[in-house]
Prior knowledge:
Belongs to the short-chain dehydrogenases/reductases (SDR) family. The chain has helices spanning about 65-75, 90-105, 120-130, 155-165, 170-175, 195, 205-225, 250-255, 265-275; strands spanning about 35-40, 45, 55-60, 80-85, 110, 135-140, 185-190, 230-235, 285-290.
Amino acid sequence: MSAEKPQFDIGHQPNIQHQTFPGSQADLDPAPSVAHVPSPDGGYKLYQAAGKLKDKKALITGGDSGIGRSTAVLFAMEGADSFIAYLPEEQKDAEETKALVEKYGRKCFLYPTNLKEQGNCKKVVEEAVKQLGAINVLFNNHAYQMMTQDISEISEEQWLHTFDTNIHPFFFLSKYALPHMKKGDTIINNASVNAYIGRPDLLDYTSTKGAIVSFTRGLSNQFVGKGIRVNAVAPGPVWTPLIPSTMTDEAIKQFTSPMGRPGQPSEIATCVVFLASTDSSQISGQTIHCNGGVIVNG
Length: 298
Ligand SMILES: NC(=O)c1ccc[n+]([C@@H]2O[C@H](COP(=O)([O-])OP(=O)(O)OC[C@H]3O[C@@H](n4cnc5c(N)ncnc54)[C@H](O)[C@@H]3O)[C@@H](O)[C@H]2O)c1
């Protein structure tokens, strides 16, 4: 079956499986949906594009798999080229993303790197501007998480690693990209429902996601008057390589939402398309709660 198609019905739970972080979409069982979205008959249909991002240029971190891959593919369907950054171990997944983007007639530049290093964030932006010619959309999307039940189990090293991976690069990438961005361009940050529900077994990750929400609000207040909108998505459970590479059997068994199923990466990517396009022209500093129906405050 094509890597683009989900291999299960909308209500099906993922099978229990384990991968080593950062995981591989090629090995995910079942394969998640990249470009298919729910249809009124309860099945899936290919996402219908409408030229919403024609000739836009996007820098997407963690673009090799999961939500990042779906976003690159839906962006391509909407007419945008992408530059994707990802960990070097993800080369195979990244090449599949590139092939899918090219299938829709757009360009996809690949850049393996570790964004934990500040200097690499600078190089990513410089290379993206060189290859794409511009950055109209910055999707800060990559992340690290690892389950631990109690604060006593979180080493000082893990705490710092999670912050160094999840929030500091969002600041560096935005700082370096913004001088290249102009009125009408957008930044979208990937947060998580966990920032709102305070998930106890992902304390470090959850804390970085709270920081991302506040970073989104403050940065929006700096740039909204200049015509650059900054927003976030806060997904609930989504079937991606992050899950089997960081979560326990029990957590995978309970990996669901009030909708009775986890989300598909494509169902988050539609929200990113919305925030990147002028369909969301009145929205800045906000978070879209694409979380399967969890009611949250804020
Ligand atoms: N899957 C979920 O249930 C879920 C829920 C809420 C939020 N999110 C968020 O969605 C975003 C995308 O994750 P995903 O679920 O699509 O998983 P994923 O595993 O497909 O993507 C995560 C990506 O982050 C990249 N990455 C991690 N550390 C990096 C580093 N140091 N340098 C460069 N790249 C790095 C990896 O290469 C990988 O591509 C993350 O921010 C995650 O927190 C996911």
